[in-house]
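Quick illustration, no need to memorize.
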Amino acid sequence: MDNMQEIVSPLLTPLNVLLAGPRGFCAGVDRAIRIVEEALRRHGRPVYVRHEIVHNRTVVEALEAQGAVFVEELSEVPPDAPVVFSAHGVPKAIPAEAERRNLTYLDATCPLVSKVHREVERHFGGGAAKSRHILMIGHAGHPEVIGTMGQLPPGAMTLIQNAEEAGAIQPADPDRLAFVTQTTLSVDDTAEIVEILRTRFPAIQGPKREDICYATTNRQAAVKAIAADADLVVVIGSANSSNSQRLREVAERAGAARAVLLPTAEALDWAMLDGVRTLGITAGASAPEILVEALLDRLRQRYTLTIEERVVTTEDVVFKLPAELAK
């Protein structure tokens, strides 16, 4: 119990809980964590990780306890130390620097992000006569955007953050354009931006399906399935997690009276639940299920829970470890 004001009454208040399914870890996050754990097993402590392996402090702290050391730049990694690149992907200059310094490195970039990297290279390849200027739909400063735009020389790509920018951009050659997207965006927002770009530039090329990953799409569909029936939707996830932030926004747009982002169960303010009879719960793709269980345990201090899980689809995607770890 947190304090004397939270003494549980013998007669607990009933609370309906709607759990969104799927929620929590995706295959790319699971793979990235396994890469760090396997690197620690093989190399021993410490193993350095450039940037947070995924955007979740609980995950990061658990790996730190096993011997992972998180840094922002390769200059912080000692000579001969093993280093892992995060699931968000890195600019080409990073592995090049690691090779120059003879560092042993493992790339934990999500395979779906790597797919986007290959797309931008394909659009840019073929020389000046065939290359296309690439519009990247995404959020400025996000590591995935930095990593994807860093696959090509400066000036080869332009970032589009919203519908207004899509409607205002004036490319040098409207007939030689392509687009890609960050994998963790709002499905609906991205569809609006793509529609604007396709209307303005009919010759623009893009993926057969937008680059938003299956896990982001599924989690947004799942939160839509519970939002309209919830007085409050709680999204478990870190503030710097793009996919978690998008879940909160999607919940509000889909009819939830309110939606909040919580990093942990301890961050729950009981006042948030004043007047709440039905509570929706989901978790971002980088948030472990233990955080959802911890929230339910905390709620049981004050409420008698009736739990309904609404599953919109099941996921069976598994990504293999890099070849050097799969042996």
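The longest helix spans residues 27-43.
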